[in-house]
Write a structure and sequence with these properties.
315 residues, alpha+beta, RNA Polymerase Alpha Subunit, Chain A, domain 2, 3 domains, 6-stranded mixed sheet, 25 strands, elongated
């Protein structure tokens, strides 16, 4: 079958049609992205200007829906790169009432967004609060770590924070449940020197609790580690019902990983290795496992030899 060929005039018509189609699409796209649309996003709440003498409990979720008027281009970017926003809520009016109306704070909230995004409303429009007795206490600061060390290096001492304690103020029932506060995690790779940094105190959504100060200076001592072999006498637990008990061998050899600067500090007196005769009395085992019940801080046990010992009992 003979294939029909497109002549020059037809090719020109097709070319014009395609150009018009592209121009129409571009024009439509420009109009679409320049028009204004209403877009709803989820936002977390951050309270500011909290009344000093009133402790409060929010009676609703700490997430609200924010209706924003923005261009089509911003809507497209928001869909391609969704992000949970945070809005600040002014609580200064709680000194005389127990609720906050968002419609009265639209201007304050709009100042927290770019000029090309206009907040129309927030849902729910009203936030209610329950007030209770306010109390204050001090809690210790802890530092979570995610650190990778250079070979033969590690933490060789206690992590220090300045301050060691922070003051928390808030409702009695909330403050009483807080035993400690953590800083933001400290990260590192191939670490071989001391870490000194400033880390913020992590609030963990405790929006109705005031923390002071809000950050701490963190020092983590890092040092070189080395192996140390120590012979430790075996202690027998629950031997009172027997005339004598003897283990073979009477000592265990423990291979440890210790700080190079503390190499001579640790001796057998700083460790305790036991066997428990109740294990034999109850389970009639033929050998007793070694249990390390005392190991100095920042000393790592690598190997215990032997891990089980034979024993003789005289009743």
């Amino acid at each position: 079958m003979k294939q029909r060929r497109i002549n020059k005039i037809q090719r020109r018509k097709i070319s014009i049609f395609v150009r018009c189609l592209v121009i129409s699409f571009v024009a439509w796209l420009l109009i679409a992205v320049s028009n204004k649309y209403t877009f709803t996003v989820k936002a977390g709440i951050e309270y500011v200007n909290i009344p000093e003498k009133r402790a409060f409990h929010p009676l609703q979720s700490d997430t609200v829906s924010v209706r924003i008027k923005m261009s089509g281009w911003n809507v497209l970017m928001s869909r391609l790169n969704p992000d949970t926003a945070n809005i600040q809520v002014d609580l200064s009016s709680l000194s005389s009432r127990n609720y906050i109306v968002f419609s009265n704070q639209i201007g304050f909230i709009n100042r927290q967004f770019p000029v090309d995004k206009q907040v129309i409303s927030v849902g729910p429009d009203t936030l209610y609060f329950d007030f209770s007795k306010q109390t204050q206490r001090k809690v210790p600061v802890r530092v979570p770590m995610h650190i990778g060390f250079k070979k033969q290096y590690g933490v060789v001492g206690p992590t220090r924070t300045s301050p060691e304690y922070v003051t928390i103020t808030g409702p009695l029932e909330d403050v009483a449940n807080i035993e400690f506060l953590e800083t933001d995690s400290v990260f590192g790779t191939q670490v071989h020197t001391d870490i000194r940094t400033v880390s913020n105190i992590n609030r963990k959504q405790r929006t109705n609790v005031t923390i002071y100060p809000t950050f701490a200076e963190v020092t983590i001592p890092i040092g070189e580690l080395t192996e140390k072999i120590i012979e430790i006498p075996i202690k027998v637990e629950n031997e009172g019902r027997y005339t004598s008990v003897r283990t073979i061998p009477s000592k265990v050899t423990v291979t440890t990983l210790v700080s190079l600067k503390d190499f001579s500090k640790w001796t057998a007196r700083d460790f305790e290795a036991i066997v428990d005769l109740d294990n034999w009395a109850e389970n009639r085992v033929k050998s007793l496992p070694i249990l390390m019940t005392k190991v100095p801080d920042y000393v790592k046990i690598i190997k215990i030899e032997p891990q089980n010992v034979d024993f003789f009992v005289r009743k």
